[in-house]
Design brief:
With 345 residues, the protein is of the alpha+beta class. The protein has helices at residues 42-49, 74-78, 95-105, 110-124, 139-151, 169-186, 197-203, 316-322, and strands at 2-13, 16-27, 31-35, 57-62, 65-66, 81-84, 157-161, 189-194, 206-211, 214-215, 223-229, 235-240, 244-249, 259-265, 271-273, 284-296, 299-305, 309-315, 329-334, 339-343. Helix 3 (95-105) packs parallel to helix 5 (139-151), helix 4 crosses helix 5 (139-151) and helix 5 (139-151) runs parallel beside helix 6 (169-186).
């Protein structure tokens, strides 16, 4: 069942279009990941979904009803949605008082407030900090408190802007599992922004990718900001995110000059080679370590850290023959036919 429906929606700031979405449906009860580079429009979209901003044109429907910003019922819609910022601001009072604030605004009685505070603090693992000062918590604890404050309001939709970007690895794991638990046990629809493709793949049922304010038809797998330089031979040098080198055919070169843009590697066309002595000599090759494997129908998704995360989709028979293992050093062979290049504007 669809919860949000967007049609021909645009947002502009100072005559610059920062969001331009022809069509988007967000399903109720699911976890949705919103991926894209900085400036892609992710936070703007969250603000619109939270009814904190109105688009300059287009239609937004919520629970099957068109949102009419002129009717004055936006407050009732906002009460069904909570947005948790990447850097949440806490009052310089206790943890308990921070959670109670929203409940008091909604005129919830004291006994109910006490019960709700205890429940949400237990859920996020901060019960022992109930009477501690909120502004003295660590970054990860603050993010968990922000989730507790949101949960206390029992929202239908939880919007999270980079929920794990500014916390340590331990709290990243805790917050990720919290989001999964909230969705599973409370059927809360969750939309979160991230730059982490691995997190999106493991946590979300649906993934949306934005670039330059527009929805793009890509899984955001193996899509990298890139520069290239012509060489004196028949190969050009491509540098992915400034750290990973590929040498690909110069046949498709459009000019003799270098450039920058985005390169995409088809995960079905690149190959994983576990025996480093057998890496194909005709392909560009990068070495890395297997960090994740998932079965998807008749294929196995293998994620390799080569300096950037690179996804290889293996057929089951090939997977059984290669038999890769988590932590294993492998080679990824990248044929020219697996690559597509778009020039930066």
């Amino acid at each position: 069942m669809s919860l949000y429906q967007l049609q021909h929606l645009q947002q502009r700031f100072a005559k610059k279009t920062v969001l331009d979405i022809d069509e988007l449906t967000i399903e109720q009860g699911c976890i949705h990941a919103l991926l894209g580079p900085n400036g892609a429009g992710k936070t703007t979209l969250l603000n619109i979904l939270a009814f904190l901003e109105s688009p300059v044109c287009g239609e937004l429907a919520f629970q099957g009803k068109r949102v009419d910003y002129a009717k004055g019922n936006i407050l009732s819609l906002r009460r069904q949605v909570v947005l948790v910022d990447q850097h949440p601001i806490m009052f310089s009072t206790t943890v308990r008082a921070n959670i109670e604030f929203g409940l008091k605004i909604r005129k919830i009685d004291g006994a109910t407030r006490n019960r709700v505070v205890d429940e949400v603090l237990e859920t996020v693992g901060l019960a022992r900090y109930k009477n501690a000062r909120a502004d003295a918590l660590s970054g990860g604890e603050t993010q968990r408190l922000a989730l507790a404050r949101a949960l206390a309001l029992e929202p239908q939709v939880l919007l999270c802007d980079e929920p794990t970007a500014s916390v340590d690895a331990e709290n990243q794991a805790v917050i990720t599992e919290l989001l999964r638990t909230i969705n599973r046990e409370q059927a809360t629809t969750i939309v979160f922004t991230t730059h982490d493709r691995l997190q999106a793949a493991t946590l979300a049922q649906h993934t949306l990718v934005l670039e330059n304010g527009q929805r793009v038809n890509t899984t955001y797998e193996n899509s990298y900001a890139c520069t290239f330089e012509p060489t004196s031979g028949d190969k050009d040098r491509y540098l992915l995110h400034g750290v990973v080198e590929l040498y690909l055919s110069a046949e498709n070169r459009k000019s003799g000059q270098g450039g920058r843009g985005r390169i995409t590697l088809n995960p079905e066309s690149i190959r994983l080679v576990t025996d480093l002595r057998e890496s194909p000599p005709v392909c560009s090759q990068v070495q890395g370590r297997v960090v994740m494997m998932m079965e998807e129908g008749h294929t196995i998704r293998v994620v390799v850290d080569v300096g950037v995360l690179m996804v290889v989709l293996m057929l089951a028979d090939d997977y059984r023959q290669q038999n890769p293992a988590i932590g294993q050093q492998v080679c990824v062979a990248v044929p020219d036919s697996a690559c597509s290049w778009t020039t930066a504007c």
